[in-house]
Amino acid sequence: MKISPAVATSLAGSTDTIVALSTPRGRSAIAVVRLSGDDAFAIGRKAITPWPTVIRRVARCRIVDYRGMTIDDGLVTTFGHPESFTGEDVVEISTHGGHYIPARVIQALIRGGAREALPGEFTRRAVLAGKLDIPQAEAIGDLIDARSAAMHRAAIEQLDGGLSRRVADLRSRLLVLNSLIAYDIDFPEEDDGPISRERISTDVDQLVDALKSLLATVPAGEIIRDGATVVVAGEPNVGKSSLFNALLGQSRAIVTEFPGTTRDAVEGVIESENWPLRLIDTAGLRETSDVIERMGIEVSERYLKQAHVVLACGDNAASIERTLVALDGKTEASRVVVRTKADLSESHVDVADVEVSAEMGSGLSALLAAVDFQLTSVFGSAIADAPLLTRARHIHAITEAKDELSDFSRLWREEVLPAPVAAVHLRAATVALENLIGAVSTDDVLDRVFSSFCVGK
C-alpha cells in the first residue's frame, strides 16, 4: 500500500544514496554491502570495475578505492528501479568477510557520494515505495529475530500480508459504514428512506466481534514471541535437574545425590511441536531452615506464579502427592504430573500423566506433547485462522478501534447524540486501523517501527 507523496518527501534525506553492511560484522566467509538510491549506479561505478553490464546477473568485479587500489575481488549484482527491494537503483557487493575489507568498501562508496544508512532505512524506503506495508516491514524484523519455528511461522504469515489483508478488509467495511451514515445525514429524505438503524448496529457488532477475534490471539502471540514459561517443580532429589538437562539436551543444571543442590532458577529454551518453551529448573519445594536454600525456594515460588505450565515432578506416588499439595495456592498454571526415574521401577503410578526416565531418555517426547496440549487448550492453536498479534503497536491499534466502535454502538442504540457526533467514533476507529497498516502514516509512526532494525536493513 503506497504512502502519499507528501509523507514520502517530508522525510529528511530520503533522496540520499545510502550504504551499509547487510551481514553481521566480524570474521566470516563473506560480507554483503548494500548501496541504494538515485545515484547508486554512478557511485558504484567509481569503486567497481568492470561495471556489470546485465541487471540482476551476478558479475565478478574488482572493488577499488579512490586511487584505483584494489580492496577486494568480489561479486556484484545490480537491481534497477523500480524493480528492487527499495524501489530505487540498488547495488549489492559480496566481499570476503572480516572487519577490514567491508569497512574499506563502505569507505570507498561514502567517498564516492553515499552516506551511511540509518537503522532500518532500506526497509523504510521499501515501505515508502509501496513494496511493503508497515506490518510486512515489521515482519522482516520478526523473521530476523525469530528464535522458534512458531515465531518463524507467524512472521511468514505477516510478511505474506495476512494481518494487512485482515485489517484492510475491516477498514473497508468501516468506510462503508461511514459513507452510509454520511449519506443518511446529507440526504435524509431520499426515496429509499433513512438507513436502517438496526442495519448499522448489526454491521458495527460484526466489526467489534472481528476485532475481538484478533485481540483473542494476543496471549498466544505473547507466548510465540517470548516463549511459554514451563516450570519444573517438585521436592529435592526427585530428578528435576536431570529431567531439565535431558529436555535441554545438555548439562545446564547441577545434578547430585544431595538434596537442595539447586539454589537458584536455571533457564533454557526448547521447543515443543508448536510452541517455544522457556524451561525453568527450580529449587526443591520443602520446608527448610537453611537461609540460602529458603531464598532459592522463594525464587521458585515467584516463577510458579508466572508459569504457563508446571511440571509437577516426583519419583513415586507419595512424592508426587506431596508436590501437588505444595503447589496448592502457589500457581494457577496448567499442570502436567510427571513421574521421574521411571527406569528404576517397573510399577506404574496412576496419578502421573507422563512417566519419564532422564537416564534412558524415555518419555520425553510424550512429556513435550503433554505440555503442547496444555498450552493449546488454554491459549488456542499457535497456527491460528486469524493472524496473530505479536507487537504492542498492533495490539494498541486494534484495541483502540474496538473501543471506539463499542462507544459508537452504545451511543447509536441509545440515540443520545446526533448521528454526526456519534459518527466521530467511526472515524477514530478507521484512523486507528489506518495507522496500523500505514494507509495514512506520519514520520513518528515510521520512526517507531524502524528504530529497532539493524543498520543494513
Helix-strand blueprint:
Blueprint: H1 5-9, E1 18-21, E2 30-36, H2 40-47, E3 48-49, E4 59-64, E5 70-79, E6 90-96, H3 100-111, E7 115-116, H4 121-128, H5 134-145, H6 149-159, H7 162-186, H8 197-215, H9 218-226, E8 228-234, H10 240-248, E9 266-271, E10 276-281, H11 291-306, E11 309-314, H12 317-327, E12 334-339, E13 354-355, H13 364-379, H14 392-414, H15 419-437, H16 443-450
Parallel strand pairs: 1-7, 8-10, 8-11, 11-12, 12-13
Antiparallel strand pairs: 1-2, 2-6, 3-4, 4-5, 5-6, 9-10
Helix pairs in contact: 5-6, 7-8, 7-15, 8-14, 14-15
Beta content comes to 15-25%
Structural class, by secondary structure, is: alpha/beta
Give the termini separation: 20 Å
SSE topology string: HEEHEEEEHEHHHHHHEHEEHEHEEHHHH
**Strand arrangement in the largest pleated sheet:** 3-4-5-6-2-1-7
**Basic shape:** flat
What is the CA-based Rg, rounded? 29 Å
Give the number of DSSP strands.
Answer: 13
Task: List unreliable stretches of 5+ residues.
Answer: 1-13, 253-263
Q: Give the helix tally.
A: 16
**Biggest pleated-sheet summary:** 7 strands, mixed
Q: State the helical fraction.
A: 40-55%
Name the average pLDDT: 84
